[in-house]
Amino acid sequence: MMAHSGWGPGMYLKDVWPDARFIGYFEWYYQPVGPDVAFMEKEAPSEDQLLRTRGRNAPILTDLAACDFGLCPTHYQKSQFPPVLADKLKVIHDGIDVEKYAPAPGAKLVLPGLDLSHADEIVTYVARGMEPYRGFPQFMAAMAEVMTRRPGVHVVVVGEDRVAYGRKLDEGDSWKKRMLAQHNFDESRLHFTGLVSRADYLKVLQASSVHVYLTVPFVLSWSMMEAMSAGCLLVASDTDPVTELIEDGRNGVLVDFYNVQATARAVLRVLDDPAKHAPLRAAARQTIIDRYNAQEIYARKAALFRS
Q1: What is the pTM of this model?
Q2: Which residues pair with 72 in a beta bridge?
Q3: CA distances from 49 to 30, 41, 56 (A)
Q4: Could you read off the pLDDT of 106-130 as tens digits, one per residue?
Q5: Would you say 268 and 146 are in contact if contact means Cβ atoms under 8 Å apart?
Q6: Which of 28, 45, 207, 237 suits a disulfide with 49, CB 3.0-4.6 Å?
Q7: CA–CA distance from 283 to each of 107, 206, 231, 278, 290 (Å)?
Q8: Domain 109-291 is of which CATH architecture?
Q9: Structure confidence by residue, pLDDT tens digits, 220-248
Q10: Given the DSSP bridges, would you call strands 23-25 and 69-72 parallel, antiparallel or unpaired?
C-alpha cells in the first residue's frame, strides 16, 4: 500500500489491512518557522500561524508512525523532518522520463494560438501558478529589463494566473495583474499560455533559449528537472532545493532569488553567447540521466518493494 502523506488518505490503511506493508510518500514537514516562511516573511509568524503549522503535521506524523518506511523525493525535503523521524525515510525521487524529456536541436515553438517559429530568442518560465513562492514577481521584473535590452527576445510563461502555494490575494487581484501594471512590457513579445498539454509543455522546453526557475526554500518543482532533462539552459535561484541538483557554472547558472538585476544579467549573458554556455545544457541533462532516470529508479523501487 502506498499513500501520499499530508492530506489523510493513508491514515487508516493499517487498520483496514493490518498485515499489508504500508509505504508512505512524504514531501514536506512543516517547521514552526519553516525555511520558506523565514525566507519570505519579514515579520515573525503570528501565534495562529504557528498553531496551524503544527496542526498541518498531524496527518503526516500519523502516517510516519504507521508506515513500514517512507519515501522522500530529495535530500533537502528529507532534511525538514526531525532527525528522530527522518531515519524512517529513504530518499528516492519519482524519476524523470529522460527519453521523453530530451533535447530537440533547432526546435521552433508553435502552440495552438501561438506561433513563435520566427523567434530566435525565447526565455521560458513554468509553474503551477504565478506567485512569490516560485519567484514570479522577481522573474517579471527581470524580464522587463531583458526585453528592453533585447528587442528580439520573446518571453513565454506557462501556468495559471493563481496562487498555488502560500497566501492568496483578494478576489480580483493577482500577481500577474500587479506585474503587468508595475512594468512597461511590450506585450506583443510577452506570452501567457495558461495550462498546456504535456506535449505542448515539452515543446516549450525544447524551444527555450533560457529557462528561468526561481523558488524559495520549499518542495522542488519537477518542471525544473524535466527542463534539465530536455537540455534547457537553466538560470535558477541559489536556494537549497535547487543547489541539490545545480552547480553554478557546471550545469546551470545560479542567481540570488531577490536580485532582479543579477537574474536579468545572467539571462542576457546567455543570450549574448549561447555557444559558450552550450556545455551547461549537456551537463544539466547528464545530471538527470545519472541521478534521476526513471527507468533506473523504477528498478530500484521494485527491488526495494520486493525486499
Answers
A1: 0.95
A2: 91
A3: 11, 12, 11
A4: 999 999 999 999 999 999 999 999 9
A5: yes
A6: 45
A7: 19, 16, 8, 9, 10
A8: 3-Layer(aba) Sandwich (3.40)
A9: 999 999 999 999 999 999 999 999 999 99
A10: parallel
